[in-house]
Design brief:
Shape: elongated
Helix content: 55-70%
Number of strands: 16
Strand content: 5-15%
Largest sheet: 7 strands, mixed
Number of domains: 4
Structural class: alpha+beta
Distance between the termini: 40 Å
Radius of gyration: 34 Å
Length: 725
């Protein structure tokens, strides 16, 4: 190729790009297409940045967890003794690490400026903040400072390092591990319940990434009618796919670049400071994100290029120049979509017979398949009803019903695109609510117990409960609080409650010298029987003189009228005497497990709500694109009818009615699926208030779309004039 030929080729390429840039600013619906592409690029780029952030956070967590893990050794080479225990603040479990330095020159664990002295505690900032109302700053001893970020897997981790008091029960036992230093991966703190990187990327991709791609597809198709004409002209002039691609690049590059740049601005605060992710409460470590800046730059570049390629590939032209807009069904819904929906429904119904753990997979696959194909079912119903509406409109002489019915029958794909967001959104909201409602029988019983007696019965457990520790604990208890011991017999399902006569009388129990069956008059005794044995017995005895073997290391602190802060006071008294002791309400371990599950659900809610917002935006863009088509098609009718009422009538029958039908179909199927889900899962409930609120929102959105379409068409009619097209 000669130099002049190459120059001419570059000149033509630049000219085609400029043509696309000009077309993006001077065609009908250009502003809608610009903001659609901008929003799509923003969504795709944010998802790409989230993937990089997840990888960087995972790597940073692993590095810090490895740096702080204890190196186990024999006593001869040990520099410290190390022991891990667990405690709870606000139904969230955290690790309590007891340490005792053996060598003066031993470096402290990562994140600590020095070793905690005996009776001192160093807490993570998040534990100190969340446990302030529960007396966490003094629970383990004197507060000696906070743990630096280098010793925490994340800024939101709850962790405590405690210097053990001298000569406490259990010191020197096999529960103390000699360590020679720190520097290996060890499950402690937040990593005990940590999720793998795949556990984060899967819901991110499924719940947020897929809706972002759906938004990109819809945004790329906005304004396809005008682009079809332009592509047809280029085809007639001998243009190839390369020439059309250059025009598409000129049209889409600016909005895509703007959306990608906005995504970079969204990331900026997380690079400057630790950002808390609602509703999870998790704090992103800004240091981890700053180290990943090359990955973020590459993600922005790739997302921009990917969006640009999607715009080009989704606007193809057939060899004969006639099929210019993206392929989609218009007059007939493919049968395989209906079959796919039926398969999804069958998978949901048969999932209960698949057995664990396959039942969850079958249910999930069936749910996704049903939701994806359900809009097509609504489209079939809308087309059938559209034909009936057209017939009735013709017989009654109602032009709006006739035209709207025929448009609906001819273009069911419009219903699929607009209703998909509402259908999937309705199902997603109800399934998330039903899934988060599952507690399990034990967790539900624990919540009932806490509501009934609260801190009136506290369980105190440790295998190092010696008589001196028990006596000291009894003396340090708040007023009106008493100690009782328990002995359980699994064979007879009985529990023996032992304590002083005054303590037993406070529980409305007699004071027998030998074990005697009693009635549970006091609700605290009833709850003790529910958790430890169905047949309660009582006996006068001093718990301090029984020894831990007699009551399996479990004591109860009973209080008649527990005041706020009682549990914190008992915990402080217990930790002062026995390190690693457990103080909890009845069934607290079950409520902690339920709370952990709810926090996991918050991540699903974060990704799901973001995806739902993207789906609603996708539906809104689809509706807005339909407004443009309705506006241009309905405008000439104003001249023929002399009234703009037909615009509102056509919009009602073409948009509002089909979307209301889709809402009804989605409501029926979602209600069936939610009831089926809760019937086969433990303690699941359906919140009908949430369900009907979601249905009402979808119905309101259907009416709003039709009203806006009619108003837009009416306004366009006043400016319409014939053109030679």
């Amino acid at each position: 190729m000669t130099t002049s030929g190459r120059t001419g080729g570059r000149r033509l390429s630049l000219q085609l790009v400029r043509m696309g840039f000009a077309a993006g600013r001077g065609t009908p619906g250009d502003r809608l297409r610009f903001w659609s592409l901008c929003a799509a690029a923003l969504a795709v780029a944010v998802v790409a940045l989230a993937v990089v952030a997840a990888v960087a956070t995972h790597d940073g967590r692993d590095a810090r967890n490895t740096a702080r893990g204890p190196l186990l050794s024999d006593r001869q080479h040990a520099v410290a003794l190390w022991r891990e225990a667990f405690d709870v603040v606000g139904e969230v479990q955290h690790s309590v690490i007891y340490v005792e330095r053996l060598k003066a020159d031993a470096p402290p664990p990562p994140g600590l400026s020095r070793w905690p002295a005996p009776g001192e505690a160093m807490l993570s900032p998040e534990l100190l903040r969340d446990g302030q109302d529960e007396g966490i700053s003094t629970r383990y001893g004197r507060f000696a400072g906070t743990i630096a970020k280098s010793g925490l897997v994340s800024p939101s981790e709850r962790l405590a390092y405690v210097g053990v008091r001298q000569n406490q029960p259990g010191e020197g036992s096999d529960s103390w591990w000699p360590v020679s230093g720190f520097g290996q991966s060890y499950p402690m703190g937040e990593t005990l319940n940590g999720r793998t990187l795949a556990d984060v990327l899967r819901p991110l991709g499924a719940l947020t990434g897929v809706p972002a791609l759906a938004l990109l597809v819809v945004a790329a198709r906005v304004g396809s009618r005008t682009r079809d004409r332009r592509a047809g002209l280029l085809q007639a002039l001998g243009g190839t796919w390369r020439h059309r691609a250059l025009v598409d690049i000129g049209e889409a590059a600016l909005p895509l670049a703007a959306g990608t740049a906005l995504a970079g601005l969204v990331l900026l605060p997380a690079l400057l400071t630790d950002v808390r992710l609602p509703p999870t409460g998790y704090l992103l470590d800004s240091g981890d994100l700053r180290t990943a800046w090359p990955g973020f730059a590459l993600a922005l570049l790739l997302s921009f290029v990917g969006c640009l390629l999607a715009v080009i590939l989704l606007h193809r032209v057939g060899r004969d120049g006639t099929a210019t807009r993206p392929r989609s069904f218009s007059s007939r819904v493919p049968r395989w979509r209906l079959v796919g929906c039926g398969v999804g429904v069958a998978a949901i119904a048969l999932s209960q017979y698949a057995g664990e753990p396959a039942d969850v997979t079958v249910f999930t696959v069936g749910t996704v398949l049903m939701w994806v194909m359900l809009p097509s079912v609504a489209a079939v119903a809308s087309r059938a009803l559209g034909e009936k509406f057209a017939v009735r409109g013709f017989r009654a002489g109602r032009a709006g019903q006739l035209i709207g019915g025929r448009w609906t029958a001819a273009h069911p794909g419009v219903v699929v695109r607009i209703s998909a967001a509402m259908i999937i959104g309705l199902g997603l909201v109800c399934q998330l609510e039903a899934g988060n409602s599952r507690l399990g029988d034990q967790a539900a019983a624990a919540q009932v117990s806490q509501a009934r007696v609260g801190a009136g019965v506290l369980s105190v457990q440790s295998r190092y409960l010696t008589p001196p520790a028990i006596e000291g604990l009894a003396r340090a208890l708040p007023a009106n609080s008493h100690l009782v011991s328990l002995q359980t017999d699994q064979r007879t399902e009985s529990v023996l409650i032992q304590g002083s006569c005054a303590t037993l009388r406070s529980l409305a129990l007699p004071c027998p010298a030998a074990p005697e069956a009693v009635r549970a008059v006091d609700p605290r005794v009833a709850e003790i029987a529910n958790w430890f044995g169905r047949n309660p017995h009582a006996q006068v005895a001093d718990p301090a003189k029984l020894g831990p073997d007699a009551f399996q290391g479990t004591l109860l602190v009973v209080t008649e009228d527990p005041e706020p802060g009682l549990q914190a006071a008992v915990e402080q008294a217990a930790y002062a005497r026995v390190p690693g002791i457990t103080v909890e309400t009845l069934g607290e371990n079950w409520t902690v497990g339920a709370a952990d599950k709810a926090r996991l659900g918050n991540w699903v809610l974060l990704f799901g709500s973001t995806g739902l917002a993207l789906l609603l935006l996708t539906g809104s863009l689809g509706a807005a694109a339909e407004f443009v088509r309705v506006r241009s098609a309905l405008a000439p009718l104003a001249v023929l009818t002399g009234s703009d009422r037909i615009h509102r009538s056509v919009a009602f029958w073409h948009l509002t009615v089909p979307l209301l039908i889709a809402t009804v179909v989605a409501a029926v199927v979602t209600a069936w699926q939610s009831l089926f889900f809760t019937a086969t899962e433990e303690s699941g409930t359906v919140s009908w208030a949430v369900f009907w609120s979601a249905v009402a929102v979808c119905a309101l959105l259907s009416a709003l779309i039709g009203a806006l379409a009619g108003r837009t068409a009416s306004r366009a009619a006043t400016r319409w004039h014939p053109t030679a097209d």
